[in-house]
Amino acid sequence: MDFALDKRLDDSSHFIEDWPLCRVSLKSDRTWPWLYLVPRRGGIREMYELPAQDQVQLIREIGMAQQALQTLYTPDKINTAALGNMVPQLHIHIFARYKTDAAWPKPVWAIQTDEIPYTETDKLAEIQKLKSCFEKLRQGE
Amino acid sequence: MDFALDKRLDDSSHFIEDWPLCRVSLKSDRTWPWLYLVPRRGGIREMYELPAQDQVQLIREIGMAQQALQTLYTPDKINTAALGNMVPQLHIHIFARYKTDAAWPKPVWAIQTDEIPYTETDKLAEIQKLKSCFEKLRQGE
């Protein structure tokens, strides 16, 4: 089954780049620095449904996204979650949390916040910053 | 640094068994079938801090826990999350969601529920059921 990004994930994020397994996007809400990782495989809802090789690549890519957030945004904690109750296509949320943020120390889903869109300029700058960081991490490997 | 399970994780769960990497426990709240996976390594807060070999083992063990929940409880979706804002020791929540549950399709953290403890008999039965399922999955590998 071919990969096609679910429309709801596409509509709520900005494309950054494709990694060997995942499509990497920036959530279109600047409340928290927030990445989506979506394995580019069709028909997958749960991690264990991926072939073993893809699972290994997934954890590697999750780690890379976490490291990038840690490096760029120096959060107090990274949060990582694959829920999928609304959009069953396997997607992993990886985002930065701060002791000063509106939900801390609760999960972000415990409070309601209005989405804060990026301006076009900020969006492009943010994506460029992330791409440079990913590139440095790749070279450091 | 030696591994010691954080007291808050210990107090909120029942020990099931140790896997090659993780301590596996049952959350002491029967609202949702809910497992904790805690890598038995000291001083780890984020997945990427684990050695590469441990990361591979972690995704394998996450997959095994997900498969066990799917097999035993036939949920509509598995939810998987590593948050750690309150308890920074790396721990992964893996739990079963149903279209009929109180929070669906929202994340469980969007609602407040009272914990429902297991009776001693039910707890032992549940642990036994999980251990048997894990054993079958191990043999099927």
Biggest pleated sheet of chain A: 5 strands, antiparallel
Label the CATH architecture of chain A: 2-Layer Sandwich
Briefly note the structural class of the backbone of chain A: alpha+beta
Question: In which range does the helix fraction of chain A lie?
Answer: 25-40%
CATH topology of chain A: HIT family, subunit A
The chain-level mean pLDDT of chain A equals: 97
Q: Within the largest sheet of chain A, what's the order of strands?
A: 1-2-3-5-4
Total domain count of chain A: 1
Kindly state the number of beta strands of chain A.
Answer: 5
Share of β-strand residues of chain A: 15-25%
N to C succession of SSEs of chain A: HEEEHEEH
Largest interface: A-B, 35 and 35 residues
CATH class categorisation of chain A: Alpha Beta
Low-confidence blocks of residues of chain A: none
Distance between the termini of chain A: 32 Å
| Principal-axes shape call of chain A | globular
Which helices and strands, and how do they pair?
The structure is a homodimer of 141-residue chains.
Chain A: H1 7-11, E1 13-18, E2 22-27, E3 34-39, H2 52-73, E4 77-82, E5 92-97, H3 120-140
Antiparallel strand pairs in A: 1-2, 2-3, 3-5, 4-5
